[in-house]
Amino acid sequence: MSQDYPALLVIVPLLSAFIISAAGWVNKRLCFPLSVAALSVSAYSCIGLLLRVLNEGVVHYRLGGWPPPWGIAYYVDYLNGLVLCVVSVAALINLIATKKSIEQEFPEKTGPFYTLYVLFVTGMLGITVTGDAFNLYVLLEIGSITGYALLAMGDEDRAPLASLNYLYMGTIGACFYLLGVGYLYIVTGSLNMVDIAHILPGLYQSKAVTAAFIICMVGVWIKMAFFPLHAWLPNAYTFAPSAASSLIAPLMTKVMIYVMIRLILTVFTPAFAFTTLAVSHYIVWLACIAIVMGAILALAQHDLKKMLTYIIVAEVGYMVGGAWLGNRAGMTGAVLHIVNDALMTLCAFLVVCNIVYKVRGYAFADLKGLFAKMPFTMGAFVIGALSIIGVPPTCGFFSKWYLILGAIQAHHYDFMVALLFSSLINVVLFFRVFEIGFYEPFSDHEGHEHHSAVMAEAPLSMLIPLYIVTAGLILAGLYTGDIVNHIIRFVIPEGFI
Amino acid sequence: METITSIRPLLAVLVSLLITPLLVVSGRKPNVREAWTFVAAVAKFLIVLSMLPAVLHGTEIVYTVVQFMPGAAIKFRVDALGMLFALVSSSLWIITSAYSIGYMRGLKEHGQTRYFCYFAICLSATIGAAFSANLLTLYLFYEILSLATYPLVTHHQDMEARSSGRKYLLYVVGASIGLVLPAMLICYDLAGTLEFSRHGILAGTAASRPMLFALLLMFVFGFAKAAIMPMHSWLPAAMVAPTPVSALLHAVAVVKVGVFSIVRILTGVFGIQLLSFFHFGTAVCYVAAFTILVGSFIALSQDGLKRRLAFSTISQLSYIVLGVALLSPKGMIGGMLHIAMHAFGKITLFFCAGAIFVATGRKNISEMVGIGRRMPVTMAAFFIASLSIIGVPPCGGFISKWYLALGALQAHQIGFLIVLLFSSFLNACYFIPITYTAFFCRPEEAMFENKVQEAPLFCVVPLVITAIISVILLFYPQPFFRLASMMVENITGM
Amino acid sequence: MGDLVQVVIAKYNYWIYITLMMIGLYAMIAKNNLIKKIVGMNIFQTAIILFYISIGMKKGGTLPIVEHGHGAHHHAVHAADYINPLPHVLMLTAIVVSVATLGVALALGVKVYNRYNTLEEDEILAQIRKK
Question: Chains touching chain B at 3 or more Cβ pairs under 8 angstroms?
């Protein structure tokens, strides 16, 4: 059984999606347990797979036993082992946490919602585990299309249009990726990533390879909302239902960052990406701009959810810049930030979920006096905010550490300045929210006539998963050394300075 | 230097952190809650004290919590300087807790559970910073301290608190993220480690002089808690907090963490040799001297008692920096000793200010004419404490100022000696009149009736205790003096 | 000049797909009507599908169907005689994806229409701004 973990973690959710859909017609209450079961099997498989990779090294799995280049091969190394775990565990925790929220927001559509949820996770896991370039496109589209549908289920007024705009841009992105794979196929005749990597080195001078790389990159950048290709993200995530945004926001962009790193490290190899191509310098500049613009745009927002989406845009800038710095510290920072940012974003959006559940709104005006009304939720929010700002010992600090160290070592001081600027702006952003929750409504002088607000906290089923994630933020920070030394160190090939 | 490994440093840090859930749970029963605070404070003090004999013997106690990268870990090392700071903080927490009870209950403040919880967390962070073995741990606890003091500073939750809170964050957190973090990482890149060492980790690196100077400035101004001008404005603004908060945090823990960090940077990261080779010590002396003088001048013009005390603190903190930056053994002893002397003196002064507020509701000095008739004990303590700050016998502050003066002579820096003396004179100018008008004024100018009516006992007893300690310290400055001398011997090898 | 013309004519499949792509992109960006945008998206995807198919072409190759499939005679196939079947297979998948995307896009379009009673994007944005 354990030999088949790579296949299990994709197939179980895929088949369960149909079962859930059917079950939804019979009895709505069956959907939740079935989804939990499916995602638990996935999570279990992912963790088992990571442990296998830690013991044995890279795992190759051939679907149906067909060897490449005829068959589709799944390829699991340290990088995707780590990302798989993060994706599956995050999806599972989110599922449990948002149960009440889903019941509140669509009482009649729980069946379809859970079906789409599980299919989306299938897509994400599939993207991460596959070793075949075209298979990646297929699963990318599975994830994306279910994503569009999930995001459109929100606020009647704005969600469908926002999702439609996301659809256009997302499709362009995926098509670009497909085009790039086409060019690669022309040149190498293979679709298997490892295979391509073996064949390519002799062909680095070919213009087709350069074109393939650039087109693939642009496609992936559109999908991960790298400034200035980010325009779809704020609206799409803001108007979405809270359960959907807390699922998609932490995962989609991070998995696309994984794809980018996979392309750089495995398919095209660093020798091509950094040396032959020589654009890394400019991409880091673009990343700086992305970070700064994300921070500034976040400042201009008046509601919590949109502010968080612009922070996501800035975080994507961190990871793209870190990966393209071209040194070990930068790449370590980028990979570490995939894990950390997924956790931080999950924490932040789960908090929004709680707030929306109780307060039915997420604008700043809705947040008054929240520290008194929802102390536990806001407590978790504070820790999540500290992580996004980058305060030790939360995990956000350590990925920033590596990113800044990488910037110093690469003499890319502009990137370092952008990172620090973003941290400072994050302080302002989050303390603005804290102030509204803490001070307003204003009491009289000296605060002696303080009306004690009645505590109206979110239910336990929403709080406990939130606290698990929050604890995860601190644990991930404290165990950074282990994560880096045992896993991420092996992600980066030797000789990568 | 012998080192032993023991979990006691970690315990000292954690004891107040672990008490926090108990405080929350017993929120409805104030006496139980306060009892827990005392338990934690006494426990912390005893754990710290238990490590004192070893440190005095010359041993250092280390404990590694988690190692991230080579040279960067969360690690504790109890050496003489850290022990000095930890002793001061932990002993004063016990006294401040007692004072807090009197003050908060006297004014019927809201949110007392939250207050005591965050106080406990702040003390954890302070002890953590005191025992930090490397720059990363120091930075970690420094940040936690900044964030944990925010709810205390903004306790009153009104408009004034909000704007003071913003200023506080802007200066303290802004400087630490914007200046200290990159400086720390550049250091790590240059030296490959962040562990404080006897000779300074930057000593052997290939960094250029301008780069090192830039790093030094980034650290000195980045640790904004040390209130070195121009990073000082947050301190007067933070006086909007309840007085016990101002007392412990801004006279003892928070600002002391700031100067403590700078002292660690000067001695452990840069090292005495490097600083004197490049004449950086003198540069820092100039910056400190500027703050000393300007702080004293501004204090002269303040009418609000707490604001005058705040500017006095700004000035006194730079004495510590000046002492260490003089790079002479006596100067460094004086600077480090002043951490302790100033703490006991300043906390008494703040306690008095709070007691006056609880008893009469007055905040401005001009409204306190003749108050000595009504609150003689309080004003007597105030007088003794101000003598300590000015630096005259029979108070402990005399020793630290004496050593600072000797240090300036030892370093052949007559200019700074003059600065020190002039500043002491200014201190007298703004402290003595307060006591004078409190006791000696014409009967018609007195604003209070003649009967004695002190603040509640829980307020008065602590301030008397700290005043008496200030006096005792002159005659028996141990163990602080011994610790300071040991640290200086360690660094300079003399 | 002769060379240039030769290059253009030789790689005509690339030019066609690029032109189609640009038409699709233009429609998606410049057109106001949601359905036209969706059609543009479809043209965009079709262009890529055509591109893939075109790269499988070989001069003189025939359809990749082998007569004796499961028979006893297994003889090696001369690959140069048959056009490459793999891109066709891949593009079957891509067409399915394209159809699915089209379905979702149209469903969203219906939702938008039900809410705003119009399919013109500028009118929709005006209605949103008015709120």
Answer: A
